[in-house]
What we know:
Helices cover 35% and strands 16% of the residues. The chain is of the alpha/beta class and 134 residues long. It has a five-stranded parallel sheet with strand order 1-2-3-4-5, covered by helices on one side.
Amino acid sequence: xxxxxxxxxxxxxxxxxxxxxxxxxxxxxxxxxxxxxxxxxxxxxxxxxxxxxxxxxxxxxxxxxxxxxxxxxxxxxxxxxxxxxxxxxxxxxxxxxxxxxxxxxxxxxxxxxxxxxxxxxxxxxxxxxxxxxx
Length: 134
């Protein structure tokens, strides 16, 4: 599913944190099987967008490297894209993760830093189809 197929608003966005130290879900969806099961449940319950995050933004959370975030997020994006016709958002502030997520099939970038990190604006500008949530 791509943005041009987006249903009229409002849309429900299901949050899928693939981190061991998630603020909201306690790290329950860190493994691929549990992440895919949770995505399926959210879709069945009416989510129109799945937002995948690979770095915790909870207070006091340790920062992760670009490679660690890529290793957490990209396989999940690819597997969800292969299974369901749903909009996929990736929650990241790292330009390289944005680029790789878009290549893997993400339809939206959700950036809590509002594209202020170096290279972020260029990363999303390179795609004609990606949506942005700031």
